[in-house]
Amino acid sequence: MLPLILREISFRKGHTTIMLCGLISVTALMTAYLSTESAAERETKRVARDLGFNLRILPKQTDMDLYWFQGFSNQTMPEATVERLANYQGVFMTYNHLMASLRQKITMGGGDVILVGVAPTITSPDKKKRPMGFTIKSRTLHLGYQVGQRLGLKSGDTLQLSGHDFKIEKVMVEYGTEEDVYVYGTLKDVQGIAGKPGQINEIKAIDCLCLTADQDPISILRKELEKILPEARVIQDRVQADARARQRQMVQRKFEFLSPFLMVCGAIWVAVLSALNVRERRSEIGIWRALGKGGGFIAGLVIGKAMIIGFFAGFIGFWVGNSMALEVGPSIFQITAKAIKTEWSYLVWSLILTPLLAAAASFIPAMLAVTQDPAETLRES
Amino acid sequence: MLTCESLCKYYQSPKGMVKSLDEINLSVSKGEFLEVRGHSGSGKTTLLLTLGAMMHPTHGKVVFKGTDLYRLNRAKRARVRSSSIGFVFQMFHLIPYLDVVGNVLAGDDGNHSGARSKSEALLQELGLGHRLNHLPNQLSAGEKQRVALARAMVASPDLILADEPTGNLDPENSKEVCRHLKRYQEKGGTVIVVTHGDAVHDFANRTIDLKAGEIISGPLVDHQAGDA
């Protein structure tokens, strides 16, 4: 049967070309879309990440009025709390970043500053994420813009705190937030200055529930946290969490819409062309029947043709789509352009799925061919 | 070899019931060349397709080599067609993308060794030796019909059914086709030709006339074509 199908394909070049072009377009668009998808996803995550942490885990006894007024908890909890949270195997374990800190108000150069000791960010071990925020070396400080201005300090200067010398690693740019009066150091150094060894008073996190406010994520998080950290309470920055969730959901929905849409368009294209082909071949089908060929043979001619064209379309479509992604992708996703690369697994999928799509789409035309009454056809012509 | 009893084929049309075949009784012996004559719409093609296991009758039965064809399922009827019946049509119905040899091989039921060499020999015999690798659109009408004849003969069927095989041919080519059919009959094959013209008449050894689905004359008239 294969030689017959190949001869028919080469005989009806116009029909073959149109069907091939349709399937190439679908495969190319899908390949290009999927190839740039990881870059788009990374870019989305980068944008979401830049929004900052959206969860704060505080000691349970925290006076929340005071917390919001002064910007840190007056209570502490053991540093080991963050490890317990990181090791928990639950819904919340889908965290991406956890950062423990100890915050304390101190007076410096005639004014108040908030001294923040930060522990290295813990990232999810299975997600291989780069830690958020900046790394601070021991015995160094990062000064908020306002503090730097007030004390007249610059990078490389030395500042004495609690009898120890600290090198000013950098003076941060003006953020226009409360961070302008922050002084950052390592958690160990700040615990020493504050006289609270092994203690923290805040864990910041980014949750991965990706639920919008109307889906009430905070209740889920609190219920979850209650089991592992009875000594803590969680609050969520809903504006940030919402923005993050919406951003990710939008990307996901776009993909969920686009993939079936492309598939359906391709299937309709193939189905219409197969039906036209069957119509054009009515007399041929009639004569095959007269010659004693069965329904399986007739269906094989129609579906086999679609599958062979689908195979070639899968190959060419992958090549076109991949070239499009490599050529155009970097100009669209400038930050994460390096994530766009040839995904050879897509070639395998193209070679499997495009013929299957073509076969599925030509199934109804094939059944029309099989059920066509050959006597009617031969009598008419 | 082939008999039909009380064969009827009715169609429902907007104007009412159309009797395409009405109580046809016919018996065809092995080695016979039967001509079925009739005007357009007389039911000739319907009769041919019904005898050829292609069209289920409304009533009656067709017995071919002892088997009631329409008691068989579709697949078995297809097998009977493939192994024992060859068709020739007025419009040739060649497969447009197959060359001459390919078209003839399409008529082989796959049970014959050396089908290709047999096809080529048959085509040589039909005067198409120089056209073996040509596509149907490169052939004249007479050549196309000879290819269709070769296709019908290649599996050495017991019966060849020809529907207006000379309808699209000039007198010379018509005679040529009839001569080949006659030769086939003389080698022991059975041939039934339906036609509205006279080209076949001299080659047939029996002629029946069909009108409005009924045999109106000569089911048992026997004559031998003297010049065939």
Short description:
The complex is a heterodimer of chains A (381) and B (228). Chain A has helices spanning 2-11, 13-50, 64-70, 80-87, 145-151, 187-194, 217-228, 238-280, 282-290, 295-332, 344-361, 363-371, 374-380; strands spanning 55-59, 77-78, 97-108, 111-118, 122-123, 140-143, 158-161, 164-171, 182-186, 199-200, 202-206, 232-236.
Uncertain ranges of chain B: 219-228
Helix content of chain A: 55-70%
* Major sheet of chain A: 10 strands, mixed
Number of spatially distinct domains of chain B: 1
Question: How are helices and strands ordered from N to C of chain A?
Answer: HHEHEHEEEEHEEEHEEHEHHHHHH
Which strands sit side by side, in order, in the main sheet of chain B? 6-7-8-3-9-10
Q: Give the beta-strand count of chain B.
A: 10
Strand tally of chain A: 12
The most extensive interface, with participating residues per chain, is: A-B, 23 and 28 residues
Shape of chain A: elongated
Question: Oligomeric status of the shown chains?
Answer: heterodimer
Distance between the termini of chain B: 24 Å
**Over all CA atoms, what is the radius of gyration of chain B?**
17 Å
Architecture overview:
The complex is a heterodimer of chains A (381) and B (228). With 381 residues, chain A is α+β, with helices and mostly antiparallel strands. Chain A folds into two domains: 2-46 and 246-380, no CATH class; 55-236, no CATH class. Chain A has 13 helices and twelve strands. Chain A has helices at residues 2-11, 13-50, 64-70, 80-87, 145-151, 187-194, 217-228, 238-280, 282-290, 295-332, 344-361, 363-371, 374-380, and strands at 55-59, 77-78, 97-108, 111-118, 122-123, 140-143, 158-161, 164-171, 182-186, 199-200, 202-206, 232-236. In chain A, strands 1, 3, 4, 5, 6, 7, 8, 9, 11 and 12 form a ten-stranded mixed sheet that branches. Chain A has a two-stranded antiparallel ribbon with strand order 2-10. The model of chain A has no long low-confidence stretch (mean pLDDT 83). Chain B is of the alpha/beta class and 228 residues long. Chain B has one domain: P-loop containing nucleotide triphosphate hydrolases (Rossmann fold, 3-Layer(aba) Sandwich), CATH 3.40.50.300. Chain B is built from six helices and ten strands. In chain B, the strands form two sheets. Chain B has a six-stranded mixed sheet with strand order 6-7-8-3-9-10, sandwiched between helices. In chain B, β7 (159-163), α6 (171-186) and β8 form a beta-alpha-beta unit. In chain B, α5 (141-153) packs parallel to α6 (171-186). Classes of the chains: A alpha+beta (381), B alpha/beta (228). Chains A and B meet through α1, α9 and α13 of A and α1 and α2 of B.
